[in-house]
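Here comes a specimen:
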Amino acid sequence: MKYELFNEEIGLSYEEAVKEAERCLNCRHKPCVDGCVAHMEIPSMIKAFLEGRGEEAKAIAEAKNSFPEFCGRVCYQDIQCEAKCVRMKQNAPVKIGLIERFIADHYASLKSVQTKINKKFAIIGSGPSGLACASALIQAGFDVTVFEKKAILGGVLKFGIPPYRLPNQVVDNRIQELMDLGVKFQIEENFGRTRNYHDLFSEGFVGMYLAMGASKQNFGKIEGSDHYKVIGWKQFLSILNIGENSFHEHFAHIKRLCVVGGGNVAMDVAISAAKFGIETHLVYRRTIDLMPARKAEVEECLHLGVHVHELCDPVKVSEIDDAIHVECKRTQLIKVDEQDRGTIVDAEGRFGLDVDLMVMAIGSSVKRLNFEGLALDGQGRILVDEHYETNIPGVFAAGDVVTGPKTVIHALAAGKLAAEKIIERYQ
């Protein structure tokens, strides 16, 4: 059985949104705000919506979160704001994410540009952090140009999230909104190769914000992982996001697929493959209950019939006829106590999976940048001060390039906070 893969999951109707919003108790101490990475004023947003002030409700959301359309769809509300909701005591929290999505989708943004200050600012990268920074700076009157390495704008919003969770059109609409406000975008600009910060300063930019994200895929140390039938999660999800024809062209012949990993990216790949009707196997070195993925994602995986192989780790890939054989070793966990995730050690026994494709989905890391004079830590992350400025005056950075890989809302919040420091510096 095939499930819907290319169309978005349906959100709330107006009546449903109102009914859900009415469950909010408008708590005095606002635990949901503390649970939100961006500290969005959730009760105030919901109150404005219920009182018929929809545009104001959206403005309240955007005051802390530049793109509530994105977060209402992909944020981890179940372990953040909704987990802090007082109604969680009855295991029935207010569905904050769905309410946020409805408000963001159905009401106009009140974003506008203040008096222009005639200062050019460059943003390197058009993912969530870069877009959030661009949004704040253009509204503050800066002349903003975003430089993107790829031919498609949006970064991980476009190549790292399945379309049934975040449709490309939602991202395109917000990018168009930024264009309408005056943000300029230049694609296929590989910063560090086509241009460097010296060039941008000489072109009249007063500063720049580095927002390239964590672009390096992790493949681990598996013998034979360089086989052409072993790909990364980015390649798989990028093909999916190009569209249905592209996905059919690349994967129509795939009958059995192996996904390696236990995080949310692994779930996205496994769920997408299963929805397409592919017999999907998920290999994870710990137990299911220790998967870092959201519980709801794991449950959907199991519901769709994904075969989850826990306590095993792939060690070798070899070619057999028109397929590949994935050899896995058994593992076990040595725990100090129940709170300990355990140390992974080898156990006796091995088994194999014969599949048509293997997708490595064990996360990503920061690609070490080769920028003259830029200070990095031992893992290649950019070093910044409390103002998000690097050791090079006028060059700022935040998001995954500084912290390592985190979530979309972390990137959006970082871009907005960095923009606030930039505005303080130059206005």
Remarks:
- The chain has three domains: 14-106, 120-215+366-426, 217-360.
- The CA atoms of residues 111 and 139 lie 7 Å apart.
- The longest strand covers residues 343-355.
- The chain has a mean pLDDT of 94.
